[in-house]
Known about the structure:
2 helices, disordered N terminus
Amino acid sequence: MIKNRKQFSAWVIGLLALSLAGCSEAEVPSATTPGDDPLVNDPTRREIILAFQNKLNIKTAGTTRADAPIATTEENEITSLDIYVFSSDKEEGPYTYQERFCYRSDGATIPNATKIILTVEGDNVALATLRPKKGLFTKFYCIANQPKLLKAGAEYTNFVALEQSSPGADYNIVTKAGIPTETDFLTFTTPLLDPATDTDILLTPLPMVGSYSPALDLRDISMGSRTRINMTLSRIVSRFDIINDEKLSHLTITGVSMGHGRKGVTFFPVVPVEDADPDKTLITYPDRDFDGANANKGTQTGAFYSYPSPIADKGYLI
């Protein structure tokens, strides 16, 4: 907020930090990867490397190595990465849940998920190595820095793996569909901001998403090579930089909020959430302290974050 509650939109630059995610696929020779992966010698699984081409400004102590842990600037830092795998015995689908791979910066293990590590390649590529089951057509959905998913406003945890009859055989089929279906999964949302909760604000590290579909053909169980998929993670929030020099403007900003904002978004694609009650679709965000090295001294980058809003919402900063 500003002293005397004046609006300061003239000093605000809003930067929408969304970008289109591009993917490419290539076969590379099989090789071992760092980490203690119990699936490394499992012949029923295929090694997949997801290479996130985000120019993450990765900082490492000493020499950059292929097995160095990821470390980035605040906005690009990855503290969690969840990779949801959906498969089908037909390329056209339907696709249902098969398994989940998880990375946590604190090394935590997530129940009913396979733990993975992140490594760095060069100066700006993060690598995730996973080994999904062979036998089906497979899609990958990646969500960084947002491990909690909501369905119809409630946290979703009911992930049940599909079952297949004879992986590698021409007659292999899905004998029991997984839960959820891909169609259902694509309706899931971020946690919804509560305007009545003072601490319900968006901070770094920022949530990001990326996906690989069309599907990858993993039906041939004899295939031993690994596949590298180049992918870009896209942020799902808008970033606002605020320009204010209190010596020139004679205004001191102490907090920032947003009127006519959205509570949350879906992930694939990123679409603002609509409330069942139209009068509750738009909210006023809780105040966030206006701080940082350049606060009220010039340009403060990343001063405020919000979920993206359509122009018709007529959102504004307060």
